[in-house]
Amino acid sequence: MTGTCAEPGCGGTILADGYCDTCGTKAAPTGRDARRARRASRAATPAGPPPSSEAPAVEAPSAGTSCSEPGCSGTILADGYCDTCGTKASARPVAAYAAPVAAATPPAGAPDGPSPSRVSRPSRIGRTLVTGSARAKGARRTSSARTRSTSQRFSIGAGLVDVPPAPVIDPSTVVLANPVVDEEKRFCSKCGAAVGRSKGGRPGREKGFCGACRQPYDFVPKLSTGMLVGGQYEILGCLAHGGLGWIYLARDKAVNDRWVVLKGLLDSGDEAASVAAVAEKRFLAEVQHPNIVEIYNFVSHRGAGYIVMEYVGGPSLKQILKKRRADNGDQPSPLPVGQAIAYVLAVLPAFAYLHDRRLVYCDFKPDNLIQVVDQVKLIDLGGVRRADDPSGDVYGTVGFQAPEVAEVGPSIASDVYTIGRTLAVLTLDFRGYQSTFQHSLPDPEDHPPLVRHESFHRLLLKATAPHPDDRFQSVPELGDQLVGVLREVVALEQGRPQPGASSLFAAASHDDGLPTLALDPSDAAASFLGNVLALGPEQRLAEIDAAVAAGHVDDTSEVHLRRAAALAELGRGSDAEALLAAVEDDDPWDWRTAWLRGVIALRAGDAAAATAAFDRCLAEVPGELAPKLASAMAAERAGDLETAATLYDVVSSVDPSYVTAVKGLARCRLGSGDVAAALAGFDRVPRTHREYEATRLEAARALARAGRHADAVGQLEGLDVTEGERDAVLLDIAEDALAKLTSNTIGPDPQARVAGHPLTTEGMRRAVEAMCRRIADRTTDRDERYRLVDRANAVRPVTLV
Known about the structure:
By secondary structure, the protein is of the alpha+beta class. The protein has 25 helices and 22 strands. Among the domains are: 317-494, Transferase(Phosphotransferase), domain 1, CATH 1.10.510; 718-801, Alpha Horseshoe (Serine Threonine Protein Phosphatase 5, Tetratricopeptide repeat).
C-alpha cells in the first residue's frame, strides 16, 4: 500500500510497509487492504511471549474503536495503533489498575551524567568459565535453585522506608535557554576520543570530525523551537543532551496539546537509515508498564529518527544526588542505604516485566530513574534491545556496563550488574567508579555504609561479580535478597524489628536449632517430599529410598538434598557427601550444598569448616537471616565471642522470634561480662512469643550467675509458668546466692528477699531447704525425691536445743 500520507500537515509518502516516510504514522488500510486487515484481525491469535505473572488480566482493544487519548478523534487500526496520534492503544485491565500520572507533572529528566557509549561487537558466543570452583569444573550457568522468589511488587519504600515525595517542577523551567554541550562532555560516538575542545585560545567546535577516527560529530540541536515534527509535534526547546543527541520537549498538536518528549534514535543524515531505525525500535510501543515511560510514536525527520515518549515529571536520582551535594556545601552526600534500596526495589518490577518479554534495558544508571511524586519511572528506552538479537550496537555507560557486554552482548545478568553499580553509586562517595573502580568496588574501610551494613556490601559484590554466572540470575532473585537487606538496615538503624518470611528457609524444628532448607516447589519431587519431611530422619530416609527404588520419584536435586539432610541428622556426614557432590555436578552454583556441609561440620564440632561453609551462603544469599545465625553458632563454638555476638545481634534485631539468636547473644555478652547487654537481648523476645516465659527464666538464671539475685527474682514476677518451673528457678537462684555468700564473692543484703528469705547465709540456707522440700513433695521420681530431701537436710541451719 503506497500513496500520500493523510496526516494533517504532513506531505510524506506511504511506503511499502504501510508507514509514512515523514511522520512515521501507520496509514489506515483502504479497499482490499482494509478488508484483508479486518479478516486478519478476526482470525489472528495474538502471539508473543507469555504475560508476566505480575500483570493484571487485560482486554486488548479491538480495531475500529475510537482512540482513548484525550483530545484525539482517531481510530484504532488492526495493528493496535491510532491512525491520528500514532499512540499504541493501551490494553485495559479487567480489574482496576494504577492511576495514570497526571499530565501536569514536569517532563522526564534526561541524562545529565556520563553519556552512554556504543559498543560494536560480533555475534553472541558462549564463554568458558575460568574462575571459581564451578568454572574450574568447566560448567556454565544454566539454572539455579536460588532463583526461587516471592516475586513481590513494591512501591517506594517497600513499606519499610519513608521516602519523601518528589516536588512538582514547573515545566517552563526545564527547557534550556542556551542548549550547548559543555566541552568536557564532548566525545566521539565511535571511538570515545575527546572532540570539540578548545585549542590555542579558540573555543571548541560544536560540529566537525573526530581527529582520531574521522567520525563526524555534531552537538548542535537539530530541532529548533516552533518546528513541527511529524506533522504534529511542536518543538518547545531542548531538555538535555544524551548519547544519541539532544532530547526535546514538545506539544502534541494532534492530541490536545499534551506534553511529549522526543529523543533521537539515529542521526545519520540518511533518510532510509532513519526509517530503518524507526522500524527496528517499533517493538518498544508494546512496552506497557506503570514504572516505565510510555512510548507514543516513532517519527523520522530530515535523516534522524525519534522516539516520542510520555512526558514524565520529577527529578532523576542523579539530580537528587546533585541537590543533596549542593545542600551539603558542595560536599558528597550519598543517599542513605535504605532509601537507595527503596528506589531500586520500586523499579525492579519494570525490569522483571522487560525480562519476561526477552528484552534487556542495557543502560541503567541514576540518570534514568525518575521519581514522580511517590512513584518511580524508568526512562530512556533508546538502549533497550531484544536479548536474543545478536546484531546491532549496544549502548551502555562506562562505570555501569558489565565487563562481558562487548564480547557476548547484553543479558539479564548484565542488567543485574547495572542495578548493582547504580546502588553503589547512590550510596557511596564513589570516586573513580568510571576509572580506577570501573569493574570493582572500593575498599569497604573507606566507605562507612559498607562497614556498617556487611550484608549490603555482600549483595553489591554478588550483583556486580565480574563473571555473569556468579551474579544473581534474575531480578526477582535480586529483589528478594534486597528486601532482606533492607529489613536488616531498617532494624539496625531504627531499632525496630522487621521480620519477614523467607522463600529459601523453613522454621527450625525446635527453638534451639537452625532453620531448614525450604523445598523448591519447582522440583519434580517436591510434592512427595513435602509429605515426608515431618518424619524422623530414619523413617524419612527409608521412605525416600523406597520411593526412588520403586520408580515413584525421580532422583532429583531436592531428593539428594533431603537424603543428605537426613543422613546428617543421623551423624552420617561422610555418606551425605556423595549426595551433595551429585547436586554440585548438576549445578555447581547451588549454595544449598554448602549449607548442609556447614550443618554437618557444626554437628561434628568442626567450627572452622562450618564457618567457611556458612560464609559462602552469606555471599550467595546476603539478605537471609539463617546463614547469619549459623555463622554466629560456628563463631561461638570457635571461641570468637565478639563475631558471634555481632551476628546474633543482627538476627535477633531483625526478627526476635529467632530465640536461638537471643540466647546466643546473651551467652556471648555474659561471657564478656556485659550483663546489661545480655538482658537487653532477652528483652527482644516479644510477650506474644511462645518462648517468652522460657527466655525470662533463662534471664533470671543469668542474673543470678552475675550476682544480681534480687533482680533475678524480679524476672519471675507475672510470668505464666507452672509452680514447678518457678520453684526450680528459685532453687537455682538460692543455691547460687548461698555459694557466693559462703565464698565471700558477694556480701549479705538483709533487705533483699529470695524465695521469701533474706539474702544472708542463714536466709539462703533456709530458702534452699524450703525449695528442696517443696519440689521433693511433687516429684514422682523416688531417687530424685531422696536426693532433694538429703540436700534439704544437709543445708538447713544448725539449731541448738
